[in-house]
Specification:
The chain is built from 4 helices and 9 strands; from the N terminus they run αββββαβββββαα. By secondary structure, the chain is of the alpha+beta class. It has one domain (about 40-135, about 140-165). A hairpin with a 5-residue loop joins β5 and β6 (about 90-95).
């Protein structure tokens, strides 16, 4: 019983102490930070239409991509994705970088040239163009903490999450 009275007294003193504490008034707002990048551009899902090239036995398609500029090619990052539905009607989105044994890309101003070993006609394609904001050496060139190689290996959903996060 003695321990109960001591415990009760400690709890009462603690509650009174907690209730008597109050926060001070809020201080003035700090200065505005620099504007964040708002120039990440992504395309709609584009249906692919491959043509078989008998010369090299590969399938080819060209995506018109007006947001692929010299600036993006020289100092930005281009991410791209393929969306398809499997036989079970499950929709999949994969990074083109993870499909390098199936499809490859070549970027020129305003165009993305696709070459595939298989006919990917009617698959959907999306690209994301991220302008570079500062020059750095290749080991420290990061966007939201990720290197271009790391971003290219991510799923579309992961990239969406990373690019929408506030720093």
């Amino acid at each position: 019983m003695k321990y109960f009275k001591i415990l009760l007294a400690v709890c009462v003193v603690s509650l009174i102490g907690l209730n008597s504490c109050s926060k001070g008034s809020a201080g003035p707002a700090g200065p505005a930070g620099p504007a964040g990048p708002d120039s990440v551009i992504y395309s709609a899902w584009i249906p692919l239409s491959f043509v078989f090239n008998t010369t090299d036995s590969l399938y080819e398609d060209t995506v018109i991509a007006p947001s692929i500029t010299n600036g993006i090619i020289d100092s930005g990052v281009i991410l791209s994705y393929i969306q398809y539905t499997d036989q079970s009607k499950v929709v999949h989105i994969q990074s083109v970088g993870s499909l390098n044994n199936v499809i490859s890309e070549d970027y020129t101003v305003g165009r993305i040239n696709l070459i595939a070993f298989f006919d990917l006609t009617n698959y959907l394609y999306r690209y994301v163009a991220i302008p570079g904001s500062r020059k750095a050496n290749s080991s420290s060139n990061k966007i939201k903490g990720y290197t271009p190689t790391e971003l290219k290996a991510m799923s579309f959903e992961q990239v969406q999450q990373v690019l929408s996060e506030k720093n």
